Amino acid sequence: MATIAVIVRRNRAGRVEWCFPRGHSEEGRDLEQTAVRLVSEDTGIVGLMLASLGTIDYSFPTTETRVHKVVHHYLLEATGGEFTAEDDPDADAIDVVWLSLLDARTHLTFANERRIAQEVRERLAGAA
Questions:
Q1: Domains and their CATH numbers in the chain
Q2: Quick one: how far is CA 70 from the chain centroid?
Q3: How many CA atoms are closer than 13 Å to the CA of 38, on its beta-carbon side?
Q4: Backbone dihedral region for residue 84 (phi beyond 0: left; psi -120 to 50: alpha; all else: beta)
Q5: What pLDDT is attached to residue 7?
Q6: What is the chain's pLDDT, residue by residue, as a tens digit (128 residues)?
Q7: How far from the centroid of its chain's Cα atoms is residue 64's Cα?
């Protein structure tokens, strides 16, 4: 059964979220390089890029302004590393867990990420 790496973290408001590894691109790095780096930093996993899963474009209000984000999702295969939240550069991770793609539907906090997990499940089922 296929599994997916998920971070259990506290957001700025102190609420627990279950989400995919995430972060910002560094200057001079392309999006795929950034995805591989972020997964490694957040989970300890060394990953091999397999495919783009698409982009999520959304915005949300803060107390001062409205923030617009564009998030790029990629499918990576774990090829090594040590699965841990210990090296999380933001120090907001409580844990990292492997979830089945079915369990991701109920555990992931954000609907957009649940849709991405469902897409991965469908792609992998079609490839089998």
A1: 3-127 (3.90.79.10)
A2: 13
A3: 24
A4: beta
A5: 93
A6: 789 999 999 888 889 999 998 888 878 889 999 999 989 988 999 999 999 998 988 898 988 999 998 889 999 999 999 998 887 777 778 899 999 999 998 999 999 999 999 999 998 888 76
A7: 27
- Residue 112: closest CA among 2, 13, 16, 20: 20
In which region does residue 81 sit, left (phi positive, over 0), alpha (psi from -120 to 50) or beta (all else)? left
Token output for 121: 């499940």
* Element (DSSP H or E) covering residue 38: helix 31-43
The tokens describing 54, both together, are 């698409």
Answer for the pair 84, 68: CB distance below 8 angstroms, yes or no.
no
Say how far residue 109 (Cα) sits from the centre of its chain: 11
Instruction: Give every CB contact of residue 32 below 8 A, 6+ residues apart in sequence.
Output: 49, 52, 74
Position 2: which residue type?
A
